[in-house]
Amino acid sequence: MSEQIDVVTIGESMVLFQPMMEGPLTYCHLFSKSIAGAESNVAIALSRLGKKVRWISRVGNDPFGQTIISTLAGECVDVSHVIKDEHAPTGIYFKEFKQYGEPNIYYYRKFSAASNFSKKDIKLEWLDHARHLHVTGITSALGEHTVEFMKEVMKLAKEKGLTVSFDPNLRYKLWDNEKKAKEVINSLISLSDVFLPGIEEAKFLTGMEDYEKNAQRFLEMGPKLVVIKLGQKGSVAFFGKKKVVAEAVTVENVVDPIGAGDAFAAGFLSVLLNENNPLDETVLDKQIEDALKHANLLGALATQFKGDWESSPYAVEVDRLLFEKEPHTR
Where does the Carbohydrate kinase PfkB domain lie (predicted)? Predict the structure, then answer.
């Protein structure tokens, strides 16, 4: 009997180069190498929290692609369905830290292996024995056929009885124009059960300032649950006619905010998927506060380290932080 998969996630991961010093990349000579990608960040975080995760992607049949596959396999993520592209490379990107504001990001992913995703790649077995699909808006921005690919995967997941979560994860550098981004993201919301925008993304998608009105607009599109990330004010969930707010976990200093939204999603899903019928309103009444609390904690922790996923905590560490269980350190 095949092992049940809690979450399938689909998207591009790239090799990430981070400078060993702060300042303009022009004058940086030493870099550390890692991997990064919204969906693989979520996959690793969920795996560390005890969930069984399958990651689907296309990578180049090159050393960078092997780096990504090996890293995820080492984190106990199922990578058996990853496609190795013989003709397109694995994407890479660089971060630039300048001591003020968020890091600058430089992508080198155009014509990457993952940008070639199309409907013909989809295999029914991707979703076999799985409960939930998590995707982001990044994939739809990558290539000529990736919007249709995303829609088909989300539809297939719902047909097979999976629940679907969708994080818009807007990356403006990837879209030709903002109008196109808004149209595509809004078209994908209706195919999801759980929608996870940030407050600025919500404003962008609806053109309205009030996040409660935005949440109601999104619920009308089809999702059963909308969770809006409020940054330093925490997060808020809407389902049915209910609203649940959770305070933020405060941090003194933000080292690197990249990946915080992915950590948030993983923390939230890790609790939600403890239940057989996670979107039943009775279940949500019982679990939503705990799910938001986990999400806020993981999102805050992700800002404390450079790198997109390396600081993701294990379940025992989360329990200690949430319930103040002091570990034995020696």
Answer: 6-311
In angstroms and rounded to an integer, the radius of gyration of the C-alpha atoms of the chain is 19
Using the 8-state DSSP alphabet, how is residue 231 labeled?
A: G
Choose the catalytic residue: 262, 280, 308, 319. Answer: 262
Burial code (b: 16+ CB inside 10 Å, e: under 16) for 255-264 equals: ebebbbbbbb
Mark out the alpha helices in 190-227 (DSSP H runs).
199-206, 211-221
Distance from C-alpha of 114 to C-alpha of 57, rounded to nearest angstrom: 7
**Residue 225 β-bridge partners:** 194
Per-residue burial over 265-281, b if 16 or more Cβ lie within 10 Å, else e, is bbbbbbbbbeeeebeee
In order along its 330 residues, the chain shows pLDDT tens digits of: 568 999 999 999 999 998 988 888 888 899 999 999 999 999 999 999 999 999 999 999 999 999 999 999 999 999 999 999 999 999 999 989 876 667 888 999 999 999 999 999 999 999 999 999 999 999 999 999 999 999 999 999 999 999 999 999 998 888 989 999 999 999 999 999 999 999 999 999 999 999 999 999 999 999 999 999 998 899 999 999 999 999 988 887 777 777 889 999 999 999 999 998 999 999 999 999 999 999 999 998 988 887 788 889 999 999 888 877 555 545
Phi, psi angles (nearest 5°) of residue 92: -135, 160
Residue 308 annotated as catalytic? no
- Dihedral, 276, 279, 285, 290 alpha carbons, nearest 10: 70
CB 202 within 8 A of CB 218: yes
Residue 227 contacts residue 236 (beta carbons within 8 Å): yes
What's the whole-model pTM score?
A: 0.94
